[in-house]
């Protein structure tokens, strides 16, 4: 028997070496490609998904095999008598299933003690063995160098003996002669296969530009392979036996679809998670989510979340004033997220973010505040809002701050701010404030996030956004450029909400289509654009009262005194703070700071207060350009 693999299921046996697979159709695509080049190449570098198991068909049917087992299955069909495997830890040894006695008799003396997994494992001894096996004419044998990326510490800075070793191997590839005639599908050379996690673990001059050294990529499992694996892994899961054929087929397709981009070993681990959590096969999606985000509990399935959203409008309007339409549209999108119907019309993998919101409208109308309110509503904690001010990412190179530096650059091992934050808190609201200020290249990253719900950082690790709500805020559409390039107002307080919404929506679509020339990003946002209205006078009064309440609370907390404002002082505040609503609630707050908070701070600083007393702002005056308060 060949080397066994731990599959956790009895119906995925290792192959029987005495019954080699017949025909290339029995092998995955990367092995078929390798077989195609065997008549013309003596050495191969196999990279990519080499630590996974792959589907191979033999007399036992469709089975899962590690890469070396797959290579042995293929080599047998080409008349190979044996296989030798080398790694820096164990040295060289004859692979189980080979014609052990024949290989040992013909090559044992050349392998020496390392042929039994012991002895010296230096590059010099490996070079000698490679040359001897490659030149052997009395035995048909393959040679696999496993963990080839770990042979040397650095491919970019070779020591003298390392350079000599790879130079010799390159010469071996160039000078090896055919050992037999290429007929009957038999091997022409004794092939040498380097298994490298990444080809940059080997010297570039060795891998690139040599026609006799072919690089083959072991691909991730495709949809067909994942379906075949899913069918086998599902048999021991709870509820599988009770399903009818249609239900099994649907659950199997879901499993295969949700594991797009994952290895077969990952699918096995997901199956183990389902068994550990006693999840029925119909809920395999929960096991996939647990594998990806590392959290067993799913907040989106909690009953309390539905109750919160039912009361959401009442709760949110306490902090977001005058945006009833925007709040209702936002809650509709959240209800879609909770019920799992996000992108339900799509036949995709279902890995998209739980919700996508694009808040647009004038400045200071509550876009960021609504994002924070949504966070409190969903997760009960405002800290679950991961916020990025996109004005900090206006330069092209700032992309590295989000996802990490590329390999080879300083700091690439640290990851990026975005991927690290989502990895630590996968159930979150991810807020991208003022998205229009980001560099267009950074916007391209959102294509993958919004479509596939995942992003790969500079270290090669994948982070999943499938449990997050993505929120963009933008002031797009409030100002537009005229024929001569001047910025002019597109909407104003004179427009009703319907006109404001129509104009802003059109301006946003034109911006993505014509200015950015990225209509594909607009398509991924879809109809999730929520347009905010201007702050109207009646709402402005409520906002100011809310801010005055915050001021009173702060004075109470800091000085243990009650705070009141007289009718006359309030009239002054209304006149000064609500006269111009161009900048919305933020503008109201800025004026309150200048007209009330600053003079109040001076007064409290200069005069001692008695805990428990009440202070009243009787009057607010402007004298010599400075605002003052009269306290009683």
Using brief descriptors, characterize the structure shown.
632 residues, Rossmann fold, 16% strand, 4 domains, 6-stranded mixed sheet, 5-stranded parallel sheet, 20 strands, alpha/beta, disordered N terminus, 22 helices
Explained architecture:
The chain is an alpha/beta fold and 632 residues long. It folds into 4 domains: 24-218, Rossmann fold (3-Layer(aba) Sandwich); 223-296; 344-531, P-loop containing nucleotide triphosphate hydrolases (Rossmann fold); 537-631, Helicase, Ruva Protein, domain 3 (Orthogonal Bundle), CATH 1.10.8. The protein has 22 helices and 20 strands. Strands 5-4-6-7-1-8 form a 6-stranded mixed beta sheet, with helices on both faces. A hairpin with a 5-residue loop joins strand 15 and strand 16 (487-489). It starts with 28 loop residues before the first helix and ends with a strand. The model is unreliable at 1-22 and 113-119 (pLDDT under 50).
Cα radius of gyration in angstroms: 34 Å
Identify low-pLDDT runs: 1-22, 113-119
CATH topology of the largest domain: Rossmann fold
Which CATH class of the largest domain applies here?
Answer: Alpha Beta
Q: Taking all residues together, what is the mean pLDDT?
A: 85
Helix coverage percent: 40-55%
Major β-sheet annotation: 6 strands, mixed
Q: Which term fits the overall shape?
A: elongated
- Specify the CATH architecture of the largest domain: 3-Layer(aba) Sandwich
The CA-CA distance between the termini, in Å, is 94 Å
Q: Which strand order does the major sheet show?
A: 5-4-6-7-1-8
């Amino acid at each position: 028997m060949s080397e066994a693999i731990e599959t956790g299921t009895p119906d995925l046996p290792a192959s029987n070496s005495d019954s080699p697979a017949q025909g290339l159709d029995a092998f995955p695509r990367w092995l078929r490609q390798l077989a195609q080049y065997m008549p013309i190449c003596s050495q191969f570098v196999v990279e990519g998904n080499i630590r996974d198991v792959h589907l191979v068909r033999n007399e036992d049917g469709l089975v899962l095999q590690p890469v070396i087992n797959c290579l042995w299955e293929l080599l047998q069909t080409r008349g190979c008598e044996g296989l030798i495997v080398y790694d820096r830890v164990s040295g060289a040894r004859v692979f189980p299933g080979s014609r052990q006695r024949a290989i040992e008799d013909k090559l044992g003396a050349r392998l020496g003690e390392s042929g039994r997994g012991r002895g010296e494992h230096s590059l010099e001894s490996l070079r000698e063995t490679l040359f001897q096996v490659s030149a052997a004419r009395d035995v048909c044998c393959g040679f696999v160098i496993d963990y080839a990326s770990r042979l040397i510490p650095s491919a970019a800075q070779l020591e003298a003996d390392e350079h000599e070793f790879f130079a010799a191997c390159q010469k071996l590839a160039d000078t090896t002669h055919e050992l037999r005639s290429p007929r009957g599908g038999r091997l022409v050379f004794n092939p040498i296969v380097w298994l490298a996690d990444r080809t940059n673990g080997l010297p570039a001059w060795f891998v690139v530009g040599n026609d006799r050294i072919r690089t083959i990529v072991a691909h991730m499992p495709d949809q067909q392979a994942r379906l075949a694996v899913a069918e086998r892994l599902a048999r021991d899961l709870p509820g599988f036996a009770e399903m009818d054929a249609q239900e099994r087929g649907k659950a199997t397709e879901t499993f295969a679809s949700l594991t797009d981009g994952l290895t077969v070993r990952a699918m096995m681990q997901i199956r183990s998670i389902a068994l550990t959590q006693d999840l029925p096969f119909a809920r395999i999606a929960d096991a996939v989510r647990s594998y990806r985000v590392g959290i067993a509990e799913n907040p989106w399935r909690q009953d309390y979340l539905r109750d919160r959203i039912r009361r959401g409008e009442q709760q949110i309007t306490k902090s977001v004033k005058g945006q009833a339409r925007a709040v209702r549209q936002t809650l509709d999108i959240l209800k879609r997220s909770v019920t799992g119907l996000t992108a339900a019309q799509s036949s995709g993998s279902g890995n998209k973010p739980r919700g996508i919101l694009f808040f647009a409208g004038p400045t200071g109308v509550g876009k960021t505040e609504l994002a924070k309110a949504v966070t409190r509503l969903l997760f009960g904690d405002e800290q679950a809002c991961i916020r990025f001010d996109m004005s900090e990412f206006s330069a092209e190179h700032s992309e590295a701050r989000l996802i990490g530096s590329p390999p080879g650059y300083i700091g690439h091992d640290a990851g990026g701010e975005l991927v690290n934050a989502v990895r630590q808190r996968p159930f979150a609201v991810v807020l991208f404030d003022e998205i229009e200020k980001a560099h267009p290249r950074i916007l391209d990253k959102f294509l993958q996030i919004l479509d596939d719900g995942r992003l790969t950082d500079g270290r090669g690790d994948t982070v999943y956004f499938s449990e997050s709500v993505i929120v963009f805020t933008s002031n797009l559409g409030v100002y537009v450029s005229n024929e001569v390039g001047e910025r002019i107002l597109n909407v104003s307080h004179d427009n009703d909400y319907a006109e404001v919404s129509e104009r802003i929506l059109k301006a946003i679509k034109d911006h993505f289509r014509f200015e950015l020339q990225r209509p594909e990003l607009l398509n991924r946002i879809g109809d999730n654009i929520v347009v905010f209205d201007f702050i109207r006078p009646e709402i402005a009064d409520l906002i100011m009262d809310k801010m005055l309440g915050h001021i009173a609370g702060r004075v109470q907390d800091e000085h243990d005194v009650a705070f009141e404002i007289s009718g006359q002082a309030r009239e002054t505040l209304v006149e000064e703070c609500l006269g111009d609503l161009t900048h919305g609630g933020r503008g109201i707050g800025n004026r309150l700071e200048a007209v009330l908070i600053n003079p109040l701070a001076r007064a409290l600083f200069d005069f001692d207060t008695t805990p428990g007393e009440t202070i009243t702002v009787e009057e607010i005056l402007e004298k010599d350009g400075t605002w003052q308060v009269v306290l009683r």
